[in-house]
Amino acid sequence: MTKTSKHKAIQCSVPECTKKAQTHRLCKKHGGGIRCKSTNCQKLAQSRGLCVAHGGGRHCAIISCAKLSQYKGLCLVHGGGRRCSMSGCHKFRQIRDLCKSHAKLQMSSAPLRSPSTTVTTAAVVSKLSISFLMNPLASSKVIPNSQSTTVKRPPESPASQNLESFLIDPIDASRYFSTIVENVDQMN
């Protein structure tokens, strides 16, 4: 048998509010819930009667650490954050279980494999964009009023067509990009 609640949840007493009441027949939005014990603080208490700003919340399991825990009871400094899902990468997850570097490579890998040599760019080609890093010698235009333009690029090198190795081994990617920078420096 399943247990059922004997009491029906009380709704917030503010008209047209459908949320569940916490304290004083009010939801958290309308003033219900336990507030921080610190003077002049109206934030909701997390633990020990304090908000996160005044010491509430779960802290790192390391005794001398006062930081908030992130994952498995530890703060980021003591190894509590979730890591990138790519093998060999020890950076923290940011986007879709990947660090920012691998997420950018994965999102940009599909357009770079296309056989076309024309790329539609936004108003400004950023020096930090993947297309610039892959082919810095391609001519790019800055267009006012955020219009789009088509930039003709030379055919891609075999290394830029095969980004699979970059996703597996970021060291190869850094070597490739350093050779591009050296080639650009030699041309100038």
UniProtKB/TrEMBL annotation:
InterPro entries named among the record's database cross-references: Znf_WRKY19
Sorted alphabetically, which Pfam families does this protein's record hold?
Zf_WRKY19
Q: Which residues form the WRKY19-like zinc finger domain?
A: 11-32, 33-56
Domain of life according to the entry: Eukaryota
Supply the PANTHER family for this chain: EMB|CAB89363.1
| Official protein name in the record | WRKY19-like zinc finger domain-containing protein
Q: Which organism is it from?
A: Phytophthora megakarya
